[in-house]
């Protein structure tokens, strides 16, 4: 019998988060380290989902003895069937909250999952966001625009790219001579502090979606 997703407002025990990855998994590693050394207490990761089978993030999850499920868009005939598989997997693992940490795939959230999925984006939304804006492309866009500052954004996920309600942002200067790589490194440091802080606020009921 299929297990059902719990509501984190009514849960007993740790907040169960699924971490979704598509690449190196540095954000995942940060969350693993913090849940295990006490900096992010009362949070556990019952499942990691990767959209690719050959990324470093999978190796990180395996070294941490975390279950990993590979769900690739190309293995499904439509985005609808891909999305259904995603939500069924999350139900099986009784996940309270989904954390997109470097996740690059579009999946359709059913109404019961709205307000249960967050994403971290490496720019100050609503600027430099939307379909196709990920990784180096985001930082290239910031530099091309001549922005004086950049940063990262954690937001609730809806069914539009990077359009969900903003939860929190962290900012850093764009320095003379910055390259996409140097800016990305500075923003990554902010991401590794902001995302755990938001998860802790959700765990403790200090952050909830408006809708």
Strand content: 15-25%
Q: Between the first and last Cα atoms, what is the distance in angstroms?
A: 31 Å
Within CATH, the superfamily carries the name: Formyl transferase, N-terminal domain
In total, the number of domains comes to: 1
Q: Mind telling me the CATH class?
A: Alpha Beta
Helix content: 25-40%
CATH topology: Rossmann fold
The tally of beta strands, per DSSP, is 7
Query: What best-fitting shape do the alpha-carbon axes yield?
Result: globular
Architecture per CATH nomenclature, i.e. the level-2 architecture: 3-Layer(aba) Sandwich
Q: Strands of the largest sheet, in order across it?
A: 3-2-1-4-5-6-7
Oligomer: single chain
Radius of gyration: 17 Å
Mean pLDDT, rounded to whole units? 94
Structural class designation: alpha/beta
DSSP summary: helix tally: 5
Tell me what you see in this structure.
The chain is of the alpha/beta class. The protein is built from five helices and seven strands. Helix 1 links the parallel strand 1 (15-21) and strand 2 (43-50). The longest helix is centred in the last third of the chain and has 24 residues, at 180-203. It is globular.
Which secondary structure elements does this structure contain, and how are they paired or packed?
Layout: E1 15-21, H1 26-37, E2 43-50, H2 56-63, E3 68-70, H3 79-92, E4 97-100, E5 117-121, H4 136-145, E6 149-156, E7 166-173, H5 180-203
Descriptive terms for the model:
single chain; 211 residues; alpha/beta; Rossmann fold; seven-stranded mixed β-sheet; 5 helices; 32% helix; globular; disordered N terminus
